[in-house]
Design goal:
With 131 residues, this protein is α+β, with helices and mostly antiparallel strands. It is built from 5 helices and 5 strands, in the order H-E-E-E-E-H-H-E-H-H.
């Protein structure tokens, strides 16, 4: 999938347009998202920076110091963005690389949709678990 047909830029643009997301009220720091255009060290990298501060979110391309780095091939990131791939499962399988603050990555993963058959949001699923 090419960068122009990828759903990831639209997801990140939507996230930036929100400006504030209550799911991130405990998150503060910068997450660098490295999207690889293919396998191996020679793959091109599409790099995004998500800066979160108590729910306020800024998405950009300007290089800043990152507290956490999430690195994966474009097809995997697109799968996470569309709800077809579970980020935690990808991490356990070793196809998603994470460096730095794992808590920040976990907070970001709350923004990702669940599987297509799941109609509940993250907060709704949490309420169900604690009943």
């Amino acid at each position: 999938m090419s960068p122009t047909s990828s759903p990831t830029p639209a997801f990140l643009a939507d996230l930036a347009a929100r400006g504030h997301d209550p799911l991130l009220h405990q998150a503060s720091g910068t997450l660098r998202l490295d999207i690889l255009d293919g396998p191996g060290a020679d793959a091109g990298v599409d790099r995004w920076y998500l800066t979160m501060h108590k729910g306020d979110v800024h998405v950009g391309r300007r290089a800043v110091k990152a507290d956490a780095v999430l690195r994966a091939e474009r097809s995997l990131v697109d799968g996470m963005i569309t709800g077809k791939v579970n980020a935690a499962a990808a991490l356990l399988r070793g196809v998603l690389e994470v460096e730095g603050d794992l808590g920040l990555v976990t907070m970001f993963s709350r923004l990702l949709p669940g599987p297509a058959r799941s109609r509940a949001t993250f907060l709704e699923r949490q309420k169900e678990l604690h009943r």
